[in-house]
């Protein structure tokens, strides 16, 4: 290789060892190609690649090549800062507002000293521009709020609303800053305060008014819905308004509420606005003179649909204050409508009852026997009336929203029972082939009415309940008396033989005859319903016991000595057992009646005055309606009892009666038993038993 073609460049300044990259060697002068070899690196390299070799120069270390920079496939994008109008276009209301607030701070934050003091240095053109930009921002802000109900809620729509609400909060804070500036500070801008919160609430009121007004418009081009099937225009209007109210407030609770901070209390705000609009319109309708049907429908909304289906909806729970809303109608307007409803409902119920009773009476008088169901005579009257009452009460509770107000309809049941009693009393006076069957069927109805009143005891006002039960007691006496009267009439002759010498000497034959006659009569009641049969047997049981004790106290027998008294007591106990066995086996449920005769038999049997005294006190404890007249008649059977003994027994009873009467659980019995005159003896004209005065005639 010829070195003559190479030119040596001037020596460069000596570099440090670190720069050279080699330790302990001096740098060597660098060389370059001669002009003959100049050209592009590629050309030179290509031309002399196999012809030139660089001589190995002692101490020369080649400099390492710098690595090529690595270019990232996705370089980070530079954040683009939007200006005010661009932010508005993107609905970035908060960012746009913050830009205006910054400009306001910059514009009104520049102050200079003058003779008068600190004054702001503001460019009027800048102020005008800022004011126009605020107006533009507010326009977008109120548009975002105004479209709250204009479309189906979506994430984008709710985000814009959320941004609008946050913007309102920022503008409100700025208003407060300006209002709280120190005295002597520079004057606030002409656009302050914005009062966005106040404007927002007024806008919501207009939105609600528009929503409710549009809801009342009947459109001909929409498909038929349940609303359009309502019979009157008033019903359709009220239904549309109520439906709009419900849908909107539920939308607020489910979606819109989350766009507002808690201090806005947006759920209560919307519900209050809708309540006011709905209330105002319903008040106008209530005072317009509604017919019965429209009146009922309006009351349904006021007392039922609105408070229960809307305000108590689970999605509103915990978000609204129902107590602060009040009622949709004033007390006066509501009372007027409710009175109109009750009057027409009472009239309708009376008509139902009258038709049902008239239809039943026609069947009675036609001579036809009532139908048999499950083998017993049946009358549908009670079922029809009870169903009518239940239906009317259920409707009244729904329309009036109150159990107490609905109870007024029950007065018609009381009136009906009185009419029913009169009709049945007149009918049983007639003699017809179907009379017995009709009475049996009506006894079923009477028991059904009674069961209805007893089961509803707590929900029926006391005055109405007492009157109904009294009328039903008369009806039961009429119906059951129709059968028991002839039985007792036939038994009257046999009753007269009780507690006579014939009874005493004839043993048990008298009572056997009585029960034989009774058993023969009972065969006619195979088609009587079991519950009525039980009541009939109970009445016969009670009435026969009363008749037996009455005959016992007629004073036709005087038992002279111990033997006679013990014999009579034995007969008395046997009669008691026979009566109790018969009626218990037949189906009577009055088990306590079996205690009466054994206790009286013990008084007859005992000889010791002290024991008699104790037994009398026990008898008075179990039967507080036992009067001195009854006791005197009972003691008169014992001919060997002295006047002093009787007086001692009486005094003991007077002393102990106030304490013994508190333990009684038995129903009255002796008050049904007439007793003769009191045994002649020296006693005060009036003695107080347990706080009550009894004259010598008691």
UniProtKB/TrEMBL annotation:
Molecular-function GO terms, alphabetical: SNARE binding
GO cellular-component term (any): exocyst
Pfam families with a match to the protein in the record: Sec6 (PF06046)
Coiled-coil features, chain-numbered ranges: none
Record-linked Gene3D superfamilies: Exocyst complex component Sec6, C-terminal domain (1.10.357.70)
Superkingdom of source: Eukaryota
GO biological process, one term: exocytosis
InterPro entries: EXOC3/Sec6, EXOC3/Sec6_C
Family: Belongs to the SEC6 family.
Name assigned to this protein: Tumor necrosis factor alpha-induced protein 2-like
Taxonomic source organism: Oncorhynchus kisutch (Coho salmon)
Record lineage: Eukaryota, Metazoa, Chordata, Craniata, Vertebrata
Gene designation: LOC109900509
């Amino acid at each position: 290789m010829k070195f003559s073609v190479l030119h040596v460049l001037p020596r460069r300044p000596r570099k440090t060892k670190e720069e050279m990259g080699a330790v302990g060697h001096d740098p060597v002068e660098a060389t370059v190609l001669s002009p003959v070899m100049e050209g592009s690196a590629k050309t030179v390299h290509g031309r002399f690649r196999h012809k030139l070799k660089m001589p190995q120069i002692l101490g020369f270390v080649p400099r390492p090549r710098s690595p090529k920079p690595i270019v990232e496939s996705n370089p980070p994008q530079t954040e683009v800062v939007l200006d005010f109008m661009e932010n508005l276009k993107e609905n970035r209301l908060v960012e746009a507002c913050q830009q205006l607030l910054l400009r306001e701070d910059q514009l009104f934050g520049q102050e200079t000293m003058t003779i008068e003091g600190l004054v702001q240095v503001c460019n009027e053109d800048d102020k005008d521009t800022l004011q126009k930009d605020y107006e533009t921002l507010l326009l977008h802000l109120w548009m975002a709020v105004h479209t709250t109900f204009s479309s189906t809620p979506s994430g984008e729509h709710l985000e814009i609303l959320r941004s609008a609400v946050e913007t309102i909060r920022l503008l409100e804070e700025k208003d407060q800053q300006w209002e709280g500036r120190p005295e002597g500070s520079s004057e606030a801008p002409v656009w302050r305060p914005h009062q966005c919160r106040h404007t927002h609430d007024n806008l919501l009121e207009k939105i609600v008014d528009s929503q409710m007004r549009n809801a009342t418009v009947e459109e001909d081009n929409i498909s038929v819905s349940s609303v359009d099937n309502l019979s009157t225009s008033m019903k359709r209007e009220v239904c549309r308004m109520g439906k709009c109210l419900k849908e909107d407030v539920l939308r607020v609770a489910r979606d819109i509420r989350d766009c507002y901070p808690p201090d806005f209390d947006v759920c209560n705000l919307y519900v209050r606005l809708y309540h006011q609009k709905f209330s105002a319109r319903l008040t106008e309708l209530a005072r317009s003179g509604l017919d019965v049907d429209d009146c009922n429908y309006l009351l349904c909304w006021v007392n039922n649909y609105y408070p229960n289906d809307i305000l108590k909806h689970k999605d509103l729970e915990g978000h609204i204050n129902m107590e602060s809303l009040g009622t949709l109608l004033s007390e006066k307007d509501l009372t007027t409508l409710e009175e109109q409803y009750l009057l027409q409902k009472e009239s309708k119920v009376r008509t139902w009852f009258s038709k049902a009773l008239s239809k039943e009476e026609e069947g009675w008088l036609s001579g036809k026997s009532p139908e048999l169901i499950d083998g017993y005579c049946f009358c549908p009257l009670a079922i029809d009336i009870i169903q009518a009452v239940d239906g009317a009460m259920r409707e009244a509770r729904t329309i009036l929203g109150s159990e107490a107000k609905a109870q007024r309809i029950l007065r018609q049941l009381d009136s009906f029972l009185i009419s029913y009693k009169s009709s049945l009393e007149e009918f049983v006076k007639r003699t017809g082939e179907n009379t017995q069957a009709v009475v049996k069927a009506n006894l079923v109805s009477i028991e059904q009415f009674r069961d209805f009143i007893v089961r509803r005891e707590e929900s029926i006002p006391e005055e109405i309940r007492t009157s109904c039960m009294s009328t039903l007691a008369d009806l039961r006496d009429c119906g059951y008396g129709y059968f028991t009267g002839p039985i007792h009439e036939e038994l009257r002759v046999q009753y007269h033989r009780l507690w006579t010498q014939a009874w005493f000497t004839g043993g048990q034959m008298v009572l056997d005859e009585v029960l034989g006659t009774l058993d023969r009569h009972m065969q006619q009641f195979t088609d009587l319903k079991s519950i009525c049969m039980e009541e009939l047997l109970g009445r016969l049981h009670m009435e026969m016991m009363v008749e037996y004790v009455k005959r016992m106290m007629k004073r036709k027998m005087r038992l002279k000595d111990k033997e006679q008294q013990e014999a009579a007591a034995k007969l008395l106990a046997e009669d008691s057992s026979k009566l109790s066995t018969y009626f218990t086996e037949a189906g009577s449920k009055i088990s306590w009646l079996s205690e009466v005769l054994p206790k009286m038999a013990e008084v007859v049997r005992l000889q010791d005055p002290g024991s008699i005294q104790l037994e009398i006190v026990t008898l008075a404890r179990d039967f507080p309606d036992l009067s001195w007249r009854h006791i005197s008649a009972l003691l008169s059977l014992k001919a060997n009892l002295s006047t002093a003994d009787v007086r001692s027994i009486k005094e003991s009873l007077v002393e102990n009666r106030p304490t013994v009467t508190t333990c009684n659980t038995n129903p009255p019995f002796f008050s049904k038993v007439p007793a003769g005159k009191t045994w002649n003896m020296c006693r005060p004209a009036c003695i107080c038993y347990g706080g009550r005065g009894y004259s010598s005639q008691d």
